[in-house]
Write a structure and sequence with these properties.
Elements (H helix, E strand, L loop, with lengths): L1 E3 L3 H6 L7 E6 L5 E6 L4 E8 L5 E10 L4 H16 L4 H10 L3 H12 L5 H19 L9 H13 L3 H20 L25 H10 L6 H13 L3 H5 L12 E4 L10 E4 L2 H11 L22 H10 L9 H12 L4 H8 L4 H4 L7 H14 L8
Length: about 400
């Protein structure tokens, strides 16, 4: 075993072996060495013994002269302090190399967790994982993903003009790392502390004129199934996923009550609502004569429920000259019509299937007109003359 004082000048003078490598250890720092390879390259190393007496060695820094002797020596001292504290950097490195990647985390999440989510959520998560998370983070080891990586990704998506999408992607990554913690893949969640973009909840109501035009446009849709879905959304205030996953068995014999299974509702609670005469007529028209072939009210291809009505919704909005409206705005419109007609928030909340009063409270401002009418009515009945006091 050759002993030298490892300096840049000494390294440059080392002879090149004909094959393999020759290792030279430092005269001052025990375990610190430099390897001279047959290729002419020089690398740094640190040799040590574990607490149990097992001999180990780890590579230090990069090749010389990218790393000079002083930099390598400083790194070797840090490794020595770790070893002196009963650490084992070689073992840690082996474990790190066998640690799963973010790609593998995504795959396990897709296999074990995603099937428990709603179909619409599954679709969104799959797209985010395929188009954003895997391309940006997939090759990283889960233990190497740091706050800075996720903050950078969040800012990158935000800079593209997609601040809300940046928040959603970050929320999904955070959820996956939450499971990684449970699976003992990592000790903490690197998403913690990343600042989300501020969001303003958007609530859009269709006006009376828009509703009139929508009613005139629906019969013009060639896709009659989509027309029925849109009509039911407006008549019931139900969420899109709840309607798409309607089964004939969810209704009573006369189609007066719709029992939404917990698996289809956002609150994961069985939700039972009464159906109006127009909604019943619409459902009867969809069923037609005889026994339905599919258990789904709106079957899609392959014996599964229909997935979406995006194209049909875009088309009917075009026909009705309705701009900047989402399908979910039909739910807001249903609630706004009830509120403007004087129905109280608890009733609206029950019809919509809200789990907390706070969710329904967004419609409280719509009470101004009926409240004013009620106050004026009282003023007509009760007349109090002032006496100047």
């Amino acid at each position: 075993m050759a002993i030298i004082k490892i300096t840049d000048q000494a390294i440059r003078r080392l002879p090149t072996p004909k094959k393999g490598k020759e290792t030279y250890y430092d005269a001052n720092l025990r375990g610190f060495g430099v390897n001279k390879l047959a290729s002419g390259r020089c690398t740094f190393t640190f040799r040590y013994k574990t607490k149990t007496g097992r001999a180990e060695r780890v590579k230090i820094g990069g090749n010389h002269p990218d790393w000079n002797a002083a930099e390598a020596r400083a790194q070797a001292k840090r490794v020595k302090r770790l070893v002196d504290a009963d650490g084992d950097p070689a073992r840690d490195l082996r474990e790190k190399r066998t640690q799963p990647t973010v790609d593998e985390l995504c795959d396990r999440f897709l296999k074990e967790v995603l099937p428990r989510r709603k179909p619409s959520t599954q679709h969104t998560y799959r797209l985010q994982i395929q188009n954003v998370i895997k391309p940006e983070l997939g090759r990283l080891r889960v233990g190497d993903v740091a706050f800075a990586d996720l903050d950078r990704l969040h800012q990158k998506i935000t800079a593209r003009g997609r601040p809300y999408r940046a928040n959603r992607v970050l929320a999904l990554v955070s959820a996956m790392f939450g499971f990684a913690v449970k699976w003992k893949w990592v000790s903490d969640n690197p998403c913690i502390g990343v600042e989300r973009n501020s969001e303003t909840k958007r609530v859009r109501y269709l006006t009376f004129d828009e509703l009139t035009r929508l009613g005139e446009a629906l019969p013009q849709l060639r896709d009659r199934q989509s027309a029925a879905i849109i009509g039911l959304a407006l008549l019931t205030g139900a969420r899109r996923g709840e309607i798409l996953h309607m089964r004939w068995e969810n209704f009573d014999e006369d189609f007066t009550v719709w029992s939404k299974p917990a698996s289809t509702t956002k609150t994961k609670i069985l939700h039972t609502v009464p159906l109006t005469a127009p909604a019943r007529q619409l459902l009867l028209a969809v069923r037609g004569a005889g026994r339905p072939i599919s258990p789904w009210v709106f079957p899609g291809a392959g014996g599964v429920p229909r997935k979406d009505v995006r194209e049909a919704w875009a088309r009917v909005c075009e026909l009705a000259s309705i701009k900047h409206a989402r399908f979910h705005d039909l739910r807001h419109t249903f609630a706004s019509l009830l509120a403007s007609s004087g129905f109280n928030l608890p009733i609206i909340g029950q019809l919509l299937g809200h789990s907390t009063p706070a969710t329904t409270a967004r419609y409280s401002h719509l009470y101004s007109d009926p409240l004013r009418i009620a106050a004026d009515k009282v003023a007509e009945i009760v007349s109090i003359k002032g006496n100047g006091a």
